[in-house]
Amino acid sequence: MTATETHRAIDAVWRIESARVVAGVARIVRDVGLAEELAQDALVAALEQWPESGVPANPGAWLMAAAKHRAIDLIRRHERYQRKLAELGRDLTAGDAAENREFDAVLDQGDDIDDDLLRLVFTACHPVLSSDARVALTLRLLGGLTTAEIAKAYLVPEATVAQRIVRAKRTLAKANVPFAVPGRAELADRLSSVLEVIYLVFNEGYTASAGSDWTRPALCEEALRLGRVLAELVPAEPEAHGLVALLEIQASRLRARLGPSGEPVLLADQDRARWDQVLIHRGLAALERAASLGGPPGPYVLQAEIAACHARARTVDDTDWIRIAALYHALALRAPSPVVELNRAVAVGMAFGPGMGLALVDEVAEEPSLRDYHLLPSVRGDLLARLGRHAEARAEFERAAALTHNDRERDLLLARAAACVG
Questions:
Q1: What is the distance between the alpha carbons of residues 344 and 324, in angstroms, rounded to a whole number?
Q2: Which residue numbers delimit the RNA polymerase sigma-70 region domain (predicted)?
């Protein structure tokens, strides 16, 4: 294997194994920032040694062992190493042979990796961090993305992402956030924070908030991967499976959302033959799994039900808009927000006519949080156009185009404005 091929192999292994390595080391050192540094040291060691020695048969175990060795060395040098090692139940005073056995136990690859990953998920998504910081830290620690890759995905300077990650680690350390799965009393609130981060990552990939690309599939793929991991880590949580169901079904449309030149294609105009049926089946299966767990449906399960209505419709005319409107009503009761009300207005407009939809839109039009939200005038323009009020519709589409930061979406809205003639 050439040096170039080895480096590619290392990169691939790191993407797969980095989260497990960081999680495994964090359990020892109880500091996420320090754990990442030690994991990076192991990566550097691989870059130095593997081109000469070759890629190990179990590269993930090699990285884990290398990182844990560094963690143990650090603890031994630390003035409080006895207390730290006592937490692990290790006794370093019994002689060399016993010492080696103790270290072998620490490095045992039979450790419960799933528990470590779950601890890392809840730590990276801790509510003490801002939303931007949670997203950046999650993509770095759990996704294995570099600072440059995160910055590119979100169209922000690399220095900005680096600062967010550094501040996030400092905040976690300063707040003494434990590297642990939250207790039953706070699990629901903490889980909602984790689900929100994954949802935000996916949404940014599904409809990019800025730039020249309508979608960023890499972010969708990363969010979907994280969602699947989380659902397996907390198999008894319906909302985790609901989120996976939603993301699987939404991701099934990604290819159909782009035209030949990368231009946006709206749902009503999409070629449904291009929808990925494998992802749809996976999504519907996840939705069934969520339903089997019982209890009233949460926000992600309800949104997945809405996505399933679209997935089951062979054509746009087959869509069960009445059921979708009812699901949005249930969602508005479960998780009220102006954006949910806006989406409900769209569904009502499709189910019962644009006049009823427009009435609902106008009820939330003065909501301060929607003042600069480009989809408000976009939805209003669509309903006005269907009512034949073309001059008003054109003005709304133009206003929406002025508010969006995505170049592709701006072109689409201006084209819709130009089509409002007569």
A1: 8
A2: 20-80
pLDDT attached to residue 98: 43
Identify the DSSP state of 317: G
Question: CA-to-CA distance for 387 and 419, rounded, in angstroms?
Answer: 14
Let me know: does 393 contact 406? Beta carbons within 8 Å.
no
Residue type at 378?
A: S
Token couple for 234: 């907390």
- Long-range contacts of residues 264-271, Cβ cutoff 8 Å, at least 24 apart: 264/214, 264/408, 264/409, 264/412, 266/412, 267/310, 267/316, 268/316
Annotate 336-346 with b (16+ C-beta within 10 A) or e (fewer).
eebebbbbbbb
Determine the residue type at 93.
T
Cα–Cα distance, 247 to 266 (Å, whole number): 18
**Which strand (E) or helix (H) includes residue 80?**
none
109: tokens are 């690859």
Cβ atoms within 10 A of the Cβ of 251, count?
A: 23
Average pLDDT of the residues of the chain: 87
Question: How many Cα atoms are found within 13 Å in the side-chain-facing hemisphere of 201?
Answer: 33
With residue 387 as reference, give the H or E element that holds it. none
Q: CA-to-CA distance for 333 and 329, rounded, in angstroms?
A: 6
With a pLDDT cut of 90, the percent of the chain lying above it is 52
How many whole angstroms separate alpha carbon 189 and alpha carbon 237? 13
CB atoms closer than 10 angstroms to residue 357 = 26
Nearest Cα to Cα of residue 119 among 230, 246, 245: 230
Whole-structure pTM value: 0.78
